[in-house]
Design a protein that fits this description.
heterodimer, A: alpha+beta, two-stranded antiparallel sheet, 5 helices, B: alpha/beta, 9-stranded mixed sheet, 17 helices, 17 strands, globular
Chain lengths: 104, 438
């Protein structure tokens, strides 16, 4: 690395850019199940949409049900704890599947 | 191991430091051990901020740093308070930490370290012991009250006299076994981190280090939007570990995403220039159990012991010590299993020796000492916010150069301080903080 490169302002990364740095072993089946009946009566102000560090949970326009991009999950488990309504059934992905940190 | 029924002396669920310390301890005593790891390899699911404390590891594997993939030995610890535009820091840097055993403080990348530790453990295994990677344990097998084995998502059931549950912060198995409940948002902390690559020469130059020396910097205040938690920069060999970790209940109340807090932290003028030229090579997230001493789960039941994060062994203090407690608990659970095997009795009564060992050690003593820390900070947000912010501004004013006499300035600053915050209340709070946090 030359001096110019070393002094460059760090690039601003979007979450998508960051998730692109993560290695995954993609599972076929989702390890996250959301109970939409409980979800409809959410008392947490839809905290799952905000708190997930990988934005796994999204509310698509015109839909009332939360979409789960389980393949982006970093397996921190925050959603399960934050959702005090217990609408999120979070399990460990199938053995060997899911996030695979290279540095950790 | 019995060929037909897959029976071991002990099954360790999870191949992190606590589980591996248990496995290593039992393997040394010649026991048949199975470690079941859900990741592709031990370490592939694991991360932490970045400092490994190693008094226990150094007893298990003397001078481990000569062969283990440690990044740097930490010779400097810095605590830094950030306001919107200022920084007030205290740094301890000493050559006393720069010789073996290096104050037992190393920066580490867990995916590499845990994998090495697993291979090291396997190297002392007997022919009936294995590390099974890529198997998720989904349930325990019970016979009456006694836990006698586990079910994985791949092979058939596996049996053992004792299960050591080392599954980490998401301890779903311990919940299933009835040893603990699902944690509440104020029990857990979530951290996000970026590993940012930089050449070692640049790191050494930028942080005033030489060779393999490292620095650990913790940030508070505006660094994490005033939440209970902190931010950090730890130096690795050829990268920085940069992250934030805060209580889930605070993220919830602020309705803010952890990654946004990290991005803001990286933009702070005191931080930005430390990261120049760096390239993010991995983003990651993990939970830390910080429910503390008063909410510890049942650590022992018939045929099972909880260790490490699944037990909640993190002392919620500025030491940020989790890995050492995890490793100590693993060793103690392993030692208890050895004694239980000699007695041929794996009942909760015999296994409660594990709890006695914990109580006699720094693990429980420190857990107990810091039991009120997190609760205090949640109940008194002024301690991490208003008070230090006022102090920093007073210092900025104190050192602001003008043509006014220093006597006048000092009078104004001290007068302002007494007027600004409720001085008596601050002294009272800080005295309480000292008792609870130090």
């Amino acid at each position: 690395m030359n001096i110019e490169e070393a002094l460059k302002e760090p690039k601003k990364l979007t979450l998508e850019d960051k998730l692109f740095t993560v290695k995954y072993n993609p599972a076929k089946e989702s390890h996250i199940k959301v109970d939409n009946e409980i979800c409809k009566k959410c008392t947490t102000n839809r905290i799952c949409l905000t708190i997930c560090p990988a934005k796994v949970y999204e509310l698509e326009e015109g839909h009332t049900e939360v979409h789960v991009s389980f393949e982006n999950c970093l397996e921190c488990g925050t959603c399960r704890v934050a959702c005090t309504d217990n609408a999120i059934d979070w399990r460990c992905p199938q053995g060997g599947m899911g996030v695979c940190y290279r540095f950790g | 191991m019995d060929e037909e029924t897959l029976k071991f002396d002990a099954i360790v669920v999870g191949g992190g430091p606590s589980g591996m310390c248990a496995a290593y301890t039992m393997a040394k005593a010649g026991m048949d051990v199975a470690v079941i790891e859900r990741g592709e390899y031990p370490g592939s699911k694991n991360l932490f901020g970045g400092i490994l404390f190693t008094t226990i590891l150094n007893k298990l594997i003397p001078n481990f740093w000569e062969e283990a993939p440690v990044e740097r030995n930490v010779i400097s610890r810095k605590f830094s308070y950030l306001t919107e535009d200022s920084q007030l820091a205290v740094e301890l840097k000493t050559e006393q930490y720069n010789k073996p055993p290096y104050n037992n403080t190393f920066t580490v990348l867990r995916s590499k370290f845990d994998r090495w530790f697993s291979e090291k453990t396997e190297s002392i295994f007997n022919e009936n012991s294995f590390v099974f990677s890529g198997f998720t344990v989904i349930d325990v097998i019970k016979e009456g009250h006694k836990i006698i084995g586990v079910v994985t998502d791949k092979e058939g059931p596996m049996y053992a006299d004792v299960i050591i549950c080392a599954e980490g912060a998401n301890s779903l198995l311990a919940e299933k076994a009835g040893l603990k409940k699902k944690p509440e948002p104020h029990d857990m902390v979530t951290g996000v981190k970026e590993v940012i690559a930089l050449p070692s020469e640049i790191i050494n130059d930028r942080f005033a280090l030489a060779g393999n020396e490292g620095v650990a910097i913790e940030f508070f205040g505006k660094a994490v939007e005033g939440m209970v938690g902190g931010a950090f920069i730890y130096t690795n060999k050829e990268s920085l570990s940069v992250g934030i970790s805060c209580s889930i209940v605070d993220f919830t109340h602020k309705n803010i995403n952890p990654n946004e807090v990290l991005d803001k932290f990286k933009e702070h003028p005191s931080v930005k220039n430390l990261l120049r030229g760096g390239e993010t090579i991995e983003y990651s997230a993990h939970m830390i159990p910080e429910f503390g001493y008063d909410k510890l789960p049942d650590l022992v039941s018939h045929g099972i012991m909880l260790v490490g994060d699944s037990a909640g062994f993190v002392n919620t203090s500025h030491y940020h010590e989790g890995s050492n407690l995890a490793m100590a608990s693993g060793v103690m659970a392993g030692e208890t299993a050895i004694i239980a095997k000699q007695k041929g009795d794996f009942s909760a009564e015999t296994l409660s020796l594990y709890k006695e060992k914990l109580n006699d050690s720094f693990v429980m003593k420190d857990m107990k000492n810091f039991r009120r820390a997190a609760k205090f900070l949640h109940a008194n947000p002024q301690v991490l916010n208003d008070y230090p912010t006022t102090m920093v501004q007073s210092m900025v004013d104190y050192f602001t150069i003008s043509e006014r006499s220093k006597v006048e300035i000092r009078k104004d600053v001290i007068g302002g301080l007494i007027m600004d915050v409720k001085f008596i209340k601050m002294m009272w709070d800080m005295n309480k903080a000292r008792k609870v946090l130090l």
